[in-house]
Amino acid sequence: MTGQIIGIAGATVTVDMAGLKLYERVQVGHAGFTGEVVRLDRERAVVQVYEDTRGLGVGEPARGLGMPLTVQLGPGLLAGMYDGLQRPLERWRAAQGPFIKGGIELSPLDFARRWRFFPLLREGAEVVAGTVLGHVEEGPFRHLISAAAAGKIGRLPEGEFTLAEPLGTFADGGEILAVQQWPVRRPRPYRKKLPASQPLITGQRAIDFLFPLARGGTAIFPGGFGTGKTILEQAIAKFADVDLVVYVGCGERGNEMAELLEEFRTLTDPWRGAGLMVRTMVVVNTSNMPVAAREASIYTAVTMAEYYRDMGFHVLLLADSLSRWAEALREISSSLEEMPGEEGYPTYLASRLAGFMERAGVVETLGGQTGSLSMILSVSPPGGDFTEPVTQACLRTAGAFFMLDTSLAHSRHFPAINWFQSYSLYEKELTGHFNEKVDPRWGELCRRCREVLQKEEALREVAEIVGVEGLQDADRLLMKVAERIREDFLAQNAYTEDAFSPPDKTVALIAGILDFYDQAVARLKTGALLDEVLKGETKANNKDGQDRQDEGKAET
Ligand SMILES: Nc1ncnc2c1ncn2[C@@H]1O[C@H](COP(=O)(O)OP(=O)(O)O)[C@@H](O)[C@H]1O
Ligand SMILES: [Mg+2]
After folding, report:
1. Which of 231, 318, 487, 497, when mutated, tests ligand 1's pocket best, judged by the most ligand atoms within 8 Å of its CB?
2. Which of 42, 313, 339, 474 suits 345 as a labelling partner, its CA being 20 to 30 A distant?
3. How much of the chain is helix, strand and coil, in % rounded to 5?
């Protein structure tokens, strides 16, 4: 179906075509820019265009493709870097040079590469959509190939093939392909959701110990400018105990993404030992790229994540930041002259965000595997005001909330996760797991750690009035211990070895601090002076002081 452009307003383009469908993919202009239908009238439709519309003119052609926006799924997506429309950025740049233009169709997959296919099923087997047919080896991963539709296997030999060739045939002659298309807005199906009961270790003590996350869970961390959102997302991308990571750079600075990729190429996954890049897929839609495409990048990323979840992998989707997508929604909504909701965001903001976050979870896949998709999403509330609509909407759906605190960031306590305001709904369920698998003291240490921090808070108020010297020795001791918990345990410098803290290190550190506390209390009771009790401690403090200076140097 073809027509013409009759109006252009930023990223929204009006075309004179009847009979399009909502969210149908449309190509507009001589350049063939990709967009989706977001509004339908009797004789015209409005298309949200995911490429830079500068230079586009009224009267240029438009073409409905009769299908929604899809991604291509198949072996070879890992280690790739894509734009919101899943174009592989490196090959794209190689083809066009540094000034890449939109409107180009470029498959994310390499159709020339040869793969060896190992079939699992034989001739005559009956399959349904999602049945595992066999696998190829993608880096260190077993990439399962599943049936896209039901049928009876005719031929399915072992052997080498390219993605351009069928793997085999169905008994009725239909081809069996290793590549499939999937509409990005439609969640991929599974047999059933399972409870999220396994921890997702992030390597960040403040999270793993105080506000643990479950595989299949969702966490958001809102924080104002400079509170460490990007550094935290990147640290988790490096150290998280998952099989695969999908990282979406959504509307943030491009140089941060470039640095991340450079670093990832040199690092290894601390859990599985393979290179970090082979477990990672990156979707970039940085601040210099078209705003509307942030929406596409979010959906492209989650669909690729689900595809690997469906092979039984534990996949983590990281996005920095969800607010930039919400801003794109606001921009589009306002150019459609929709009735604005709170702060100009569309009234469907909350349901759109929830719909996306609900794609996380642990599932039993159609092929009978267990896979999970977890999400850790940053939010950038303007002015660090958490009452704003995006933070509030995310809060309603997320299972964990890490509040990044501007005053902690100012005092250079990173990650700036506020230990009073944050929460995790997974904590109860996971404590049992940590007690059993890591250390039987885990839950109790956790309770005591919080208790010390709370008491410190109460004592601080007293100390403000009477001065620290006016406090009793037992209270001054507690304040010292709380300081150690904050500075040596909860704080974690992303630029040192300490950036990654596996659970056994985490528990050893906190147990060390609380053991010291117990011994010190006992000594005070037998009449020792506080200064004597803290003597060993003072040395440790000097050493920390040195560490902190070194950290300062590393950053500059
Ligand atoms: N874990 C950390 N360890 C050390 N420094 C950190 C850490 N997190 C953040 N920082 C410091 O804070 C700065 C801002 O962090 P960034 O992640 O860019 O903030 P945001 O994305 O929230 O604007 C960093 O450049 C770094 O100096
Ligand atoms: Mg940032």
Report:
1. 231
2. 42
3. 40, 25, 35
